[in-house]
Amino acid sequence: MHANLKSIDMNSILSKGIIATLSFLLASCSVNVTPKCLEETTSAKVTDSPTNQIMKKLMVWITVDSKDGMRDKVIEILDEPFGNTFTENQNGCERLERSLDNQNHNRLFLTELWSSKEDWDTYFENGTKLRDENGFNKRLGELLKEDGIQIIFSDINKLPL
After folding, report:
1. What is the pLDDT at residue 48?
2. Strands 107-114 and 93-100
3. Structural domains of the chain sorted by starting position, each given as residue range(s) with its CATH number in brackets
4. Cα–Cα distances in angstroms (integers) from residue 157 to residues 13, 106, 122, 154, in the given order
């Protein structure tokens, strides 16, 4: 499987009070977070044979580092209606998984599968605005370390079943 990876530094986003959603979460920011590897089209590519049909999808890998002892409170916020449920219900979000780091009890991971980069961009823009307006991002941000969210994007190629 071929995947191009690009790490996004969220310091400037967090310092402006915008939390890159845990995918869940968030939504748009004044910083361009489009990695070069995602500038290509993400629409399905069809070859002559159905067995050679390849669909490009977007994986979003999010690492969340809470302040000491705050991981459970972060999980509570992510379980609110404007957290993971909001993300899962967005057009193009095919899957959202949350897992806990067994070695670092202040860290959790979010893994999202999106139909396209365009769907994620729309979600991120709309979600950030809504979460800023309703205070979700502020409450979440208060529980995170200074560099508490790291996001990695990757293109994946998936052969249909």
Report:
1. 38
2. antiparallel
3. 5-39+53-158 (3.30.70.100)
4. 29, 32, 22, 10
Edge-to-edge order in the sheet of strand 144-158: 5-9, 144-158, 55-66, 107-114, 93-100
| Strand-strand pairing, 55-66 and 5-9 | unpaired
Contacts of 129 (CB under 8 A, 6+ apart): 27, 28
Beta-bridged to residue 65, according to DSSP, are 107
Would you give the DSSP letter of residue 51? G
145, 66 Cβ separation under 8 angstroms: yes
Q: Which amino acid is at 52?
A: N
Whose CA is closest to 15, among 126, 108, 152, 144? 144
Q: Assess whether pLDDT exceeds 70 at residue 24.
A: no
Is this prediction's pTM over 0.90? Answer: no
d(CA 62, CA 120): 13
Beta carbons of 22 and 148 less than 8 angstroms apart: no
Burial class of residue 40 in the structure, from the number of CB atoms within 10 Å of its CB (0-12 exposed, 13-18 middle, 19+ buried): exposed
CA distances (Å), origin 79, targets 14, 32, 75, 147: 21, 28, 6, 22
